[in-house]
Amino acid sequence: MDYDRSLADLLELDSTIGKTKEWLKRNKLDKDTLVVVTADHGHSFDVYGSVDTQLFNSVAEGEDMEKKHSIGTYENSGWTSYVDADGDGFPDSWDVRFTLAAGTAGFPSYKENFQVSVNGTFVPAIAQGTSHHHYKEHVSNPANSGISKPGTIAGDAPVGVHSLQDVPLFAMGPGSEAFAGIMDNTEVFHKIAEALGLGGN
């Protein structure tokens, strides 16, 4: 649920794939190397608008309905303030005025302020003793500020959970044509084996 860091990780992965492709081409190995990149699961993550954090922060804590007026959707959603002036593929600052309004479907109760956590990893929920004999109940972290979001999952989970959504798959090189279209994740192994000449069964 630390969305800024998740997006930074995604940019890192994208950069790594790009550098790998460049290296393979430079060393004339791109025609002989199958590259397959995918995820093992999704998180039901999506972006639904943008947030004016200056307006968001100007509203008193606890005034959730008023704070929500800083979130723009559809034609009221503008561009973010992220800038990449040095051209390294990453925002020069993650702490900007206009950010993404984003979230997931499966999460514990927490407070969302749509801003990067500048003092370490965002901790959405914390354990509240051992009120149940087999797990610790987690509650919204009182150290956080923002809009209160009631959880959609049981209190024994302190973070967001995996989802069943389809995930993208990128493939290039010999045998990559076999990865087109929609497939069950168990097919990926067999398609790699086939591309290596080991047979598909």
From TrEMBL:
Q: Which residues form a coiled coil?
A: none
Q: Which GO terms describe its molecular function?
A: alkaline phosphatase activity; metal ion binding
Sorted alphabetically, the keyword list is:
Metal-binding, Zinc
Cofactor entry: Zn(2+)
A Pfam family the protein falls into = Alk_phosphatase
Which branch of life, at top level? Answer: Eukaryota
Identify the EC number(s): 3.1.3.1
PANTHER family according to UniProt = ALKALINE PHOSPHATASE (PTHR11596:SF72)
Name assigned to this protein: alkaline phosphatase
Species of the source: Podila minutissima
